[in-house]
Amino acid sequence: MVMDKVVPNEATFTSVARIAAVKEDPDMAFDLIKHMKGFGIVPKLRSYGPALQVSETTAGIIEGWFKCKTAAKVGEENWDVRKVKEGVVKGGGGWHGQGWLGSGEWRVVRTHMDGAGICQSCGEKLVSIDIDPKETENFA
């Protein structure tokens, strides 16, 4: 496309990143996201999705951590509701900047989202959560 002077858009980059993910090349998927900036395109949360696929081994490690006693102890037990509400408003919804709230055992399940974004485990609809712009930049 670029050689033919056709400017790619966000959907183009995301589609190619999905191809990289299918080829099990997450590094290529992340590189594509980095190249979006060069075309004046701000990556969206959905742009990162293809690069975030994990292997069975990695999924097992993550599940194991969330099921351990240490994970049940992580999190702030006495948090200020007012600060959380202010953070959500200031952050544009979702991200509150107050860290991990609550503690206790995690419910860990593997599930799928249907085409409408409904979780097949809990029945809730998937929504995007805005994260701090500096955090987004560091992640990218």
Element layout with pairings:
Blueprint: H1 10-22, H2 26-36, H3 45-48, H4 56-66, H5 69-73, H6 81-91, H7 133-139
Helix pairs in contact: 1-2
Note down, in words, how this protein is organized.
The protein is mainly α and 140 residues long. The longest helix is centred in the N-terminal third of the chain and has 13 residues.
Please summarize what this structure is.
The protein has 140 residues and is mainly alpha-helical.
Give the CA-based shape: globular
Average pLDDT, to the nearest integer?
79
Run of helices and strands:
HHHHHHH
Instruction: Please state roughly what percent of the residues sit in beta strands, choosing from under 5%, 5-15%, 15-25%, 25-35%, 35-45% or over 45%.
Output: under 5%
Please count the helical segments: 7
By helix and strand content, what is the structural category?
mainly alpha
Number of strands: 0
Poorly predicted sequence stretches spanning 5 or more consecutive residues:
none
Q: State the distance separating the first and last CA atoms.
A: 23 Å
Largest sheet geometry: none
Q: Which percent range fits the helix content?
A: 40-55%
Q: What is the C-alpha radius of gyration, as a whole number of Å?
A: 18 Å
